[in-house]
Amino acid sequence: MLHISTRGQTPPVHEANAICMGLPLDGGLFAPEKLPPMPEELFCEARAYHDLAAKVLSLLFGRLGDLGEITQSAYSRFSKDNPAPLVAEPDGAFTLELFHGPTRAFKDMALQVLPGLMERARLQSGQTKKICILTATSGDTGKAALEAFAGRPGCAILVFFPQNGTSEVQEKQMTTQEGANVGVCALEGNFDDAQTGVKRLFTDTSFHLGMSSRGYMLSAANSVNIGRLAPQVVYYVHAYATLVDKGFIKAGDQINFCVPTGNFGNILAGLYAKHMGLPIGRLICASNRNRVLTDLLTTGRYSLNREFYTTYSPSMDILISSNFERALFLLSGNDVELTTRLMTELRTKRSFEMSDALFASFCEHFSAYTCNDEETLAEIGESFKSTGKMFDPHTAVARKCLRDYQRETGDTRLCVTLATADPYKFPETMLKALGRPSEENGFAAMISLSEFTNTPIPAALKSTMTKPVRFFNVTAPEMIREAAMEMVDCL
């Protein structure tokens, strides 16, 4: 299978080069030339998660060979034998818990696999340089990527996060990261500033030459890298197969998924699964107060001419959703000219409008709803009161949006909500939602939350309390190039 740039100015490459490069030099994203069909037995028979992952990934990355050893090693680091348990909640909802990995966020589901994929791809492509991974994060990707690549031979990883744009726990998870091959830097501004700055480095020829002279080639670890996105397809297949195995649905029945969405990678994986043959009805895009995706998917117009809000669900505080470009490319029939034109308009005019035909294609697959901060707190509080279970702010957004969708449409198909983070990553917000007094910092809030709810603090987060901070760097967006070079030189 070839992977092609959504902008069409970079020659097609096989999966090994797409994974190693991360981003094409023309400013687009690598996408499969054609999504392969999925054998029905993959989503109609329950099997060990690592085995399913190897089989699904082999459809997308067949030239990389047998991936069983890579997936088995990756998912052995999770706290449960089943890395993605599907839970039938007391209120009748179904939740796919994706936060049982080493950093307690759904990003582990793919990032624990990516280093193995990248090393296999590096060897297969004949690449002799070390790989320097550049990543912008809105919170969870940064720590998950650092944890996955720390100490790995043949690579370095640099992470940029928005200063004051993550939870205190998320920030300390990153700034205390151990490993001689890692660098972390806060960026003045928001996540969009960090993401735009990092993407610009991938098209900066002089930066590539500077890194090459230091013995590195560039790659990416967030969902702009197809090697990071592809493993996310697996848990959609896993959820469906589990529902069939447990007798909740019959093979072939359509189900819906409700996905808390920021950078559009998580929900795009569902669109890929659907196009590969998984019986998905609606993909419900759940947004917070930064409702740029809700407006886009209900009007067909993408506009950045709006206020940016810092919310209780910080990983969704995003206006420029990078992976939407891949959705445009797929649903336009791989139209590179159209994709390039719309993305150029978004960059230069800060808005674009889809044609009626293209918008209709999106409406076939997506519905979109919004949940504000007050509704998020109310959802957390009511859920705990009625079921005794805590949901993190992002998952709470999705639960509220799902009810709005069902009430508005009357759609009674079974729906799975993706739970994307451990509630203990956002303890201050959880305490506020539960009507408890605030604490002086995130770690004191963790303790109070544990005492009030009589639940244990996850070991992976508890250990962060006492770790010393290693990284204090802060840079301006226009200085991101110099900051990256300086961090590499210090490794």
Topology (SSEs and partners):
Blueprint: E1 2-5, E2 13-14, H1 15-21, E3 30-32, H2 40-44, H3 49-60, H4 68-75, E4 86-88, E5 94-97, H5 108-111, H6 114-124, E6 130-136, H7 140-149, E7 155-162, H8 168-175, E8 182-187, H9 191-202, H10 205-213, E9 216-220, H11 226-245, E10 255-260, H12 265-275, E11 280-287, H13 292-299, E12 301-303, H14 324-331, H15 336-348, E13 351-353, H16 356-363, E14 366-370, H17 373-387, H18 393-409, E15 415-419, H19 427-433, H20 442-453, H21 459-462, E16 474-475, H22 480-490
Parallel strand pairs: 5-15, 6-7, 6-9, 7-8, 8-16, 10-11, 10-15, 11-14
Antiparallel strand pairs: 1-2, 1-3, 4-5, 12-13
How far apart lie the N and C ends?
A: 36 Å
SS class: alpha/beta
In what order do the strands lie side by side in the largest sheet?
Answer: 4-5-15-10-11-14
Low-confidence stretches: none
**CATH overall fold name of the domain at 87-101 and 227-425:** Rossmann fold
CATH architecture of the domain at 87-101 and 227-425: 3-Layer(aba) Sandwich
CATH class of the domain at 87-101 and 227-425: Alpha Beta
Main sheet specs: 6 strands, mixed
Number of DSSP helical runs: 22
β-strand percent reads 15-25%
How many strand elements?
16
